[in-house]
Amino acid sequence: MxxxxxxxxxxxxxxxxxxxxxxxxxxxxxxxxxxxxCISCHGEKKSKAGVNFASYTNAASLFxxxxxxxxxxxxxxxxxxxxTDKPQPTLEQRIVLIEFLKxxxxxxxxxxxxxxxxxxxxHRLNRTEYNNTLRDLLGVTNHLAxxxxxxxxxxxxxxxxxxxxxxxxxxMERYLTAAEQAVAQADPAKLHGAAPVWYRSERGxxxxxxxxxxxxxxxxxxxxxxxxxxxxxxxxxxxxxASVDLAFKGAVKAILVSPSFLFRIEHMESGTKPWxxxxxxxxxxxxxxxxxxxxxxxLFRLADKRQLNEPAVLDVQVRxxxxxxKARALAxxxxxxxxxxxxxxxxxxxxxxxxxxxxxxxxxSMMDEPIEFFASLLHENASLLRLIDADYTYxxxxxxxxxxxxxxxxxxxxxxxxxxxxxxGIVTMAAVLTQTxxxxxxxxxxxxxxxxxxxxxxxxxxxxxLVATLPPDDHVKEGLTFRQRLEKHRKDxxxxxxxxxxxxxxxxxxxxxxxxxxRDQVSDHPVDASGRLIxxxxxxxxxxxxQALLNRKDLFLRQVTGKxxxxxxxxxxxxxxxxxxxxxxxxxxxxxxxxVTLVTSIVQSFPFQYRRGDKPIELTGVGR
Length: 624
Known about the structure:
10 strands, about 5% strand, globular
């Protein structure tokens, strides 16, 4: 009832502000609350955490740092701010402040935050993209790029981030070797077209074959200058006595080490005005987003006809591409990196003496479970909220035995119904639970931090220096259980603020041991999975935790959207991407949170279909 009253109060204030016409709602409704409850710690004289609210004096000024204001809203909602030992606004004041800030951030004047599709960095193919492109271009199934140096993991946490895909000198050497191997292993029909080139001695036909191959390899029609270079290379080889076949393959090798093949190059225009990608560039963005590979013949055909950028055509193509087996690349590369479960293969593993059931086969199965689950959401166009809670999962024989589920026949993954809601959803998957544990014990801190960072997009600040560490195992010591020792640690005033956010989330998962199996006791004591969230809600166990996460589904959907958009764009997100992210989350809410809606909305979005000119776009009207 109080919240309904407060919302009614907000609407009354909002309507009055609209009627007033010239009143700035920030100055009328937000600034007084900041002065009353916030400026003493976040003002000109004292700016805790580097936040100075006094420097923001009107609605336009919010867009100098919209991410900070988004974080402020979350802290107000979770009652993290003001601190409990400071004067508190009433519930009505808190809700009115939150709603006004949300409205201002969601409805900017175009002059405050001009449309900016982001920096168009030249994108080198990463190892996965290189391997998949050779597979679809030449039929080469050996992973030749595995011999390349490891790719970076930049903004957004993905290894397709263009800013971190450098070209060290050794990589150029590896490109030459890989091109040699690719031509030697190529499927002749894919290399030459309908008939082997050695049956075509006519120079004109050979050059047509080379141009057709270069068009597919470069992912757009070949311009005259590079085609002339390819022709000269072929002619020179023939003049020096090379056979047609050998000269042809030499030209193909040159194509495979060309920047036009190794990089996804988009044309650049001068000025600050964003411009729309052409059909070939859009086809490449789509195919490397969904397939981690080059466009297929259907995408090329539509690009040739300049029809691909039509919304209805795009929608059909995205749905078609998601039904293709190559779409598993999206599930593998996005899910494994977003959730961090890919790291299980390289980070310190659980103590195998204490957990003998954990072995390499089980570990690999753990890593595949979230991939299979996410792939099914895309294939079935199911609700993304199943990532939070579901009554089923995907297991193979090894993982079914590990979880104590009925026996599975055969080597592959199958969908199985879960007997209860203790499991279900990514937060209860063994891969997540294991990577957020230590070798000998669970870590409510790591698990809670993981939920805040990866599921809600609300990461806590880094811990202060010289923080006391906890024991490496969960044995009872000095009469205290591990939880009791952690509770004692939390009383440190330097630690309590963050731990009050993280620990209750992690405590709710204490029934899962360090390798993700269910348990009822820890060191002969009953598991205590209870806790109080920062907003006052009580949680006890994974079922209650998942319900609490569903209650914050707006944050979860924004996090998933932001993560997938960063993956799709191959760059970290910036403040100017917020309008697109918010628009997509609204589209999800009106379409039952369907997984395909997320992908199609990203492909249809402004940042995906446009790129920036060669000059930065400056904000206007956002000063003091």
